[in-house]
Amino acid sequence: MASKISELVTGQKIEVQLASSNVPARFYSEFIGAVKDRWVIVNMPDARKYKDVRELLQEKTPVIVRFVLENESGEICAFRSEVSYVISHPTKMLFILWPSQVEHRVIRKGRRFDAFLPASVSGQSVKGEEKTFKGHVLDVSESGCRLKHEKPEEKLAELWENGSKIALKIEQKNNGDLTLNAMVRQIKQVDDQIELGVQFMGNQKEQVNSLFSGSLVDIDELSRLESPK
Q1: pLDDT (0 to 100) of residue 88
Q2: Which of 29, 74, 171, 215 is least buried, going by the fewest C-beta atoms within 10 A?
Q3: Is the separation of the CB atoms in 42 and 63 below 8 Å?
Q4: What pTM was estimated for this model as a whole?
Q5: Record's superkingdom (predicted)?
């Protein structure tokens, strides 16, 4: 199932773990592209955050690569391979050998429902700063949701990363405000907004049930945004 790699989009966050290291050495980076049946190409990790890891990245270093696909079923994928080349120009990149197999499993427990609910997103950014943004939930499932929020001034790489913990305060007209703790699993920029795929953290069954028991679409808010200004 190496075809799963073809579903990756440029700039998508991926996790790379050094399989030969005696200590947990892993980093998050961005998918640049692929040459089918030859290489998967990713950015070198940020020197400021992963200096020690960068020194271990050499040709033939075994790695485990993980990424999340936000498709209809929602899947987490992983494969084992090794570094083929480390390129310095025009920018530092890792060429990872194309894997013979990609393991994958569905991460959503049930069907995903379209939604439109005003919400705020709060959490500590990659730079260690507390951030809060206004946005909207776009769809939900029992295990997570997809949402958009306003684009900040800083670079996307300095805001969230795979694994960032956030709090969602969702406004429901009939059920009142609902707060859910979640973990960021996918980040991308869409036009002038940031789109997040997040996974709800454990022990929140009551809150998630409350979310589904109310209306998933705020008609007044949707009408307000769609009306001509």
Answers
A1: 82
A2: 215
A3: no
A4: 0.55
A5: Bacteria
The dihedral formed by the CA atoms of 49, 2, 6 and 36, expressed in degrees to the nearest 10? 90
For the chain, domain boundaries: 2-106, 113-226
For 170-208, b/e burial (b = at least 16 CB within 10 A) is: bbbeeeeebebbbebbbbbeeeebbbbbbbbeeebeeeb
Span of 103-117, 146-160, 181-195 with lowest mean pLDDT: 103-117
Quote the DSSP letter at residue 7.
G
pLDDT at 160: 92
In the numeric block, the tokens 């947990």 are attached to 24
Distance CA 21, CA 12 (A): 25
Taking a C-beta distance cutoff of 8 angstroms, is the pair 132, 166 a contact? no
- Predicted confidence (pLDDT) per residue in 176-190, tens digit: 789 999 999 989 888
DSSP character at residue 204: -
Q: Which residue has the tokens 């679409």?
A: 217
Beta strands in the chain (DSSP E): 13-18, 26-35, 39-43, 62-69, 75-87, 93-97, 103-106, 113-124, 130-140, 144-150, 165-172, 176-190, 193-200
What does each C-alpha distance from 76 to 66, 95, 102, 107 come to in angstroms?
A: 7, 21, 10, 6
% of the chain surpassing 90 pLDDT: 38
Q: What is the mean pLDDT of the chain?
A: 85
Options 1.10.1740.110, 2.30.110.10, 3.40.50.720, 1.10.150.20; CATH for 2-106 is 2.30.110.10
